[in-house]
Specification:
This protein is an alpha+beta fold. The protein is built from 15 helices and 20 strands.
């Protein structure tokens, strides 16, 4: 299974940073040993503490060697967990989360440090050079002598203990190189062990990119080499951002905000072809958000354009709105005061959120039905995004598609005009074979005499089929939602305008709805007051800035650049490039 592990570090002032690791494993082992998938480097955690394996729709957490585990506050030996469950292991708190494209995302936070007891004792002891009556220059010579003594004693001691003691088979003495190592490796690189040559192919030189690409062969360059050189990164070396052998409290396996701003804050950004506008921070200094907006060109072909999204009123103003009329006034204020054109989406459907979200409900076959956002928008696995809205899954309960427009009428497929004609014609042909010609006239209710002869029966089937098509396309169910084109000649087919809907409007944003479930949908999407089918209900930057901020910003959730943006590219980038192919809009 594909797993994303997020190591959260709390900084002074309450801000937090996140280090992300990607894993692929059948199970996860947790412990202080470096061979565990989840490495917990604290002396209070056993070498092997617990195992997490998939079980049905959840995950089975089992203690190893009697390790105490707390699940949702209760001490257990084992438990089956689901998304959203939390458990504690030693000084670490962990939570199971969802993540698009992953089977599981696990958040790991170090929340109970040992404390700086040693520093406290030394500060309170009052032992200094004055108490020892040692002058500073003599103290310096003493330290230098100790360093030289250790430099000679360590390799000598290592050599003397190279042979195993008598009667202790398999003993291995510590190697002198242990004392020259710069520090342990992080996360996914721990399985290399002592095989330093895996990455360090030449002595006293930085790790070459070719060593990284032996494993990370799917990593794509962020920029072309010619573009990177214009920003002072001619080699664009992996190690510039991904730094190993750092302490766990200062891990740099993932780029920080200042790494991104080193290039993206350059005045050159936005001037070179294909580069975005400069970014100097978040939220201050960040360009407005843009969305992919569906539409059609002059020839009727579907296109996607990238357009700026205006800011919605802040969440406080939305929360203070007493009713839908107050919300509608806020929406009109956005439309009238926006400095940029409001993006207009043309997906080929006639639909308004305002009509479907009436407080008194809408007309349905079984009577009035009150809808909410969840009536049509179903979360995907992990609650990252939403499944595409379809006729069969979300519309058919209210918009019945039958021959006579009633719930008990002959059901028809939601398909193209050619297939629909075949279905209608097949139904009336079957009635003709059964001798059931008693079809009442829709206007008068009269029933015509049965046709006589084969040609008359064929004419009756053709006439009934065409009449049914006119009822459906001309003024019936189809025309309520679709643009309909009438036949050019008698007996010709109706046409239906193509439907072109966007399921992801900001595919380059690594956004998940799951952590935002504490908020109402209308906090970010003013759907209840949208009275036009072309309204784009995506939030602007100010909505995000209500909760999120830069690293170290007080009263905000610290969100680095990589918290919302991908770096090395992937399917999301490919989809954007494909969608915008040939589109000259910015």
């Amino acid at each position: 299974m594909d797993i994303q592990i997020r190591y959260i570090e709390r900084l002074s002032g309450g801000a937090a940073t996140t280090q992300i690791e990607e894993r692929r494993a059948d199970r996860l082992t947790l412990g202080r040993g470096t061979d565990n998938e989840i490495f917990l480097p604290d002396p209070r955690v056993p070498l092997e503490a617990a195992v997490l394996t998939p079980q049905g729709e959840g995950w089975l957490l089992e203690s190893v060697g009697g390790t105490l585990i707390r699940v949702n506050g209760e001490v257990v030996g084992s438990a089956v967990l689901g998304l959203g469950d939390c458990f504690s292991l030693g000084p670490y708190d962990m939570a199971l989360m969802g993540q698009m494209g992953r089977d599981l995302a696990l958040e790991v936070e170090f929340v109970r440090p040992l404390g700086e007891h040693l520093d406290t004792l030394m500060n309170e002891g009052g032992v200094g050079s004055e108490a020892l009556q040692i002058r500073p220059w003599r103290w310096g010579w003493l330290v230098l002598g100790l360093v030289l003594l250790l430099a000679g004693w360590i390799p000598y001691h290592s050599y003397q203990t190279a042979l195993p003691p008598s009667g202790q088979a398999g003993f291995k003495a510590p190697d002198a190189s242990t004392f020259w190592r710069p520090g342990s490796v992080q996360g996914q690189h721990r399985h290399f062990g002592d095989a330093c040559q895996t990455c360090h192919t030449a002595p006293f030189t930085p790790v070459a990119d070719v060593a990284c690409l032996k494993c990370h062969d799917e990593a794509r360059p962020h920029l072309t080499q010619s573009t990177a050189s214009k920003f002072g990164q001619p080699t664009q070396r992996c190690g510039v951002c991904h730094q190993e052998h750092q302490p766990a409290t200062n891990a740099r396996m993932w780029a920080k905000q200042e790494d991104c701003l080193a290039c993206h804050g350059s005045p050159t950004m936005g001037k070179l072809p294909g580069t975005p506008r400069p970014v100097h921070g978040f939220p201050t200094g960040h360009p407005p958000l843009h969305a992919l907006v569906a539409g059609f060109d002059d020839e009727g072909a579907p296109v996607v354009r990238r357009q700026e999204v205006p800011d919605l009123p802040d969440s406080a103003a939305i929360a203070a709105a007493e009713d839908d009329n107050a919300l509608r006034a806020l929406w009109k204020q956005v439309q009238s005061q926006s400095a940029v054109p409001i993006p207009e989406e043309d997906g080929g459907l006639f639909f308004t959120h305002k009509l479907h979200l009436k407080a008194e409900g809408i007309a349905a076959p079984e009577g009035k039905r009150v809808l909410n956002c969840a009536s049509c928008h179903t979360p995907d696995v992990g609650k990252v995004g939403f499944k595409p809205v379809t006729m069969a899954a979300n519309c058919i309960e209210c918009h019945v598609l039958t021959l006579d427009g009633t719930p008990k009428g002959q059901a028809l497929p939601h398909t193209d005009p050619v297939t629909l004609r075949q279905a209608i014609g097949g139904y009336f042909a079957q009635r003709a074979v059964q001798g059931r010609f008693d079809v009442p006239d829709p206007e008068t209710g009269a029933v015509a005499p049965p046709p006589q002869g084969a040609q008359a029966v064929q004419a009756w089937v053709k006439s009934q089929t065409e009449d049914a098509e006119w009822r459906l396309f001309g003024a019936g169910a189809c025309k309520k939602c679709h643009g309909v084109g009438y036949p050019d000649e008698e007996g010709g087919l109706f046409t239906v305008a193509p439907v072109h809907l966007q399921n992801r409007f900001m595919p380059e944003a690594a956004f998940s709805h799951r952590p935002h479930q504490t908020q109402s949908c209308t906090t970010c999407h003013m759907a209840k007051v949208s009275g036009e089918n072309y309204d784009l209900l995506m939030p602007g930057l100010s909505t995000c800035a209500t909760c999120h901020g830069s690293e170290g910003q007080p009263d905000r959730l610290a969100t680095p650049c990589t918290g919302c943006h991908h770096y090395h590219g992937g399917d999301e980038h490919d989809s954007v490039a494909a969608a915008l192919a040939g589109d000259a809009s910015p």
